[in-house]
Amino acid sequence: MKKALVITIIFITTSISAQMYQVVHPKKINKKEFHSCKIFFKNDSIASGYGTFFQTGFYGIRFTDSIPEKEYIKNFKLISMMDFEKVEMVKNSKKTVFHSIKTKGVFKKYILLKVYESNLMTLYRNPLYTEIFGFHKKNEEKAKMLGFMFKNKTKKMPSRILRVFNDCPQIKKNYKKKIYKNNYESLIQIINDYDKCKSN
Questions:
Q1: Backbone angles phi, psi at 164, to 5 degrees
Q2: Which residues form the signal peptide (predicted)?
Q3: How far is 126 from 156, CA to CA, in rounded Å?
Q4: What does residue 170 show for φ and ψ, rounded to 5 degrees?
């Protein structure tokens, strides 16, 4: 268990450190990087305009009220993820919702994409590192982040997954029987099994 904890910490810390190196402060950005968006703030206000996560490392969003005729935009502002609840962005006619989620551990918040939702839990994914997930139980304020390496999809799911579902005896039994494999599909299966466990 200790070894698994160390692996998770190294994996997430390395990924986030690399993410932080992507944060720069350009004086101008090509307008092609900006897309129509709505920012939903913590105080219930909404800002409509154009935004981009370009060179933010997903620690915030660069925002402007309008798109100028010139090729580059200079008058934009960086809005921290600590200030908003979510961002709805439309790119190539497709709407994507980025959520600012409170998390347990060193990092107080992440910008995450919702990938699955059950009755009792929402599963989020890091938009840059697709094998880092946030598990948010709906009766808890903060999500728990876990990193995985799904290269060997037939291998048993890492034991650190039990730290999220340690209040469900059936999931522990299934894990010992090696029912859960090291892949995304098993994450969904575990979440659904958790719903069943808590409904009994």
A1: -85, -35
A2: 1-18
A3: 22
A4: -65, -40
